[in-house]
Amino acid sequence: MNILDGKKIANQIKEEIAVEVAQIQTRGEKVPHLAAVLVGNDGASLTYVGSKVRSCKKIGFESTLIHLPEDTTEAVLLQQVADLNANSDIDGYIVQLPLPKHIDEEKILMAVDPDKDVDGFHPTNFGKMALDMETFIPATPFGIMELLRRYDIETEGKHTVVIGRSHIVGRPISILMSQKGKAANATVTITHSRTKDLQEFTKQADIIVSALGVPDFLKATMVKEGVVIIDVGITRVPDATKERGYYITGDVDFEEVAPKASYITPVPGGVGPMTIAMLLKNTLLARKRRQD
User: Fold this and answer.
1) Given 96, 206, 251, 281, which residue is catalytic?
2) Is 116 a known active-site residue?
3) Which residues are paired to 189 by β-bridges?
4) Which end of the chain has less Cβ packing within 10 Å, N or C?
5) Catalytic site includes residue 96
6) What structural domains and CATH numbers belong to the chain?
């Protein structure tokens, strides 16, 4: 069993980006500027956005955090998005999900300028990705692909089973892994909560990407020997014995499944750090495009 160390690879990517940023500064040009909009005080979102801001500072990006109260109206948020679209100093930005229930997420994401949509959620960018055109790839699937590439995981002709069909992870990773190229050329099956006999699919899988959001869902009895496991799930499970009052776990019962896996991502420290690294990579791409 080998660990797919997302934290290590993410740090390598950040170092590579920092070198490019230093070269931009040497030329006297404007460094990339990433903005994040956070509505409310969701604990996981606060942690995630905070990590993005720290990462920006570490690699030499400029960053702006716009923190709005929980009761922010949809109209106010749409105006904030419009302001960011019009702000020539901002190369790319994200609207942190989930949004409060009274705000229509789709309406907000549709309002984001596709050329600044470094999350890769806008239909324009999603469509380009599906057509194998250059675009902003959603950061989590982008991170998974990069992790597979850098560990030279053999994917060609392999049966990949994706658990979960979200627009953020499940669907895009199924498209990316079925395309031509490195860490691709796989035969992909998408499964989800309505799939009958789901474990019949996972037992056949050479590679499993789980993005279900159900703690410890995938058990050892559901996988074959030598499987590659990419655990995208990250859930805070309440635990009074812990100092923080919770512990973090993924979709995969790590202790059970790891002995059967050839490669496996830990939670935390697997896909999560890669997501942030690829968001930064998308922001650098946005900066280059705006310059061109």
Assistant:
1) 96
2) no
3) 161
4) C
5) yes
6) 27-113 (3.40.50.10860), 139-272 (3.40.50.720)
Angle at 115 between CA 40 and CA 10, to 5 degrees: 70
Q: What is the pLDDT of residue 291?
A: 80
pLDDT in tens, 149-198: 999 999 999 999 999 999 999 999 999 999 999 999 999 999 999 999 99
Catalytic annotation present for 5: no
- Give the 3-state DSSP-derived string for the chain, with helices as H, strands as E and coil as C: CEECCHHHHHHHHHHHHHHHHHHHHHCCCCCCEEEEEEECCCHHHHHHHHHHHHHHHHHCCEEEEEEECCCCCHHHHHHHHHHHHHCCCCCEEEECCCCCCCCCHHHHHHHCCHHHECCCCCHHHHHHHHCCCCCCCCHHHHHHHHHHHHCCCCCCCCEEEEECCCCCCHHHHHHHHHCCCCCCCCEEEEECCCCCCHHHHHCCCCEEEECCCCCCCECHHHCCCCEEEEECCCEEEECCCCCCCEEEECCECHHHHHHHEEEECCCCCCHHHHHHHHHHHHHHHHHHHHHC
Task: Supply the pTM of this predicted model.
Answer: 0.95
Q: What's residue 44's pLDDT?
A: 80
Residue 42 pLDDT: 85
91, 119, 251, 253: the active-site residue: 119
pLDDT band at 236 (very low <50, low <70, confident <90, very high): confident
Comparing C-alpha atoms, which of 146, 176, 161, 163 is closest to residue 224?
161
Query: Which of 52, 80, 117, 253 is an active site residue?
Result: 52
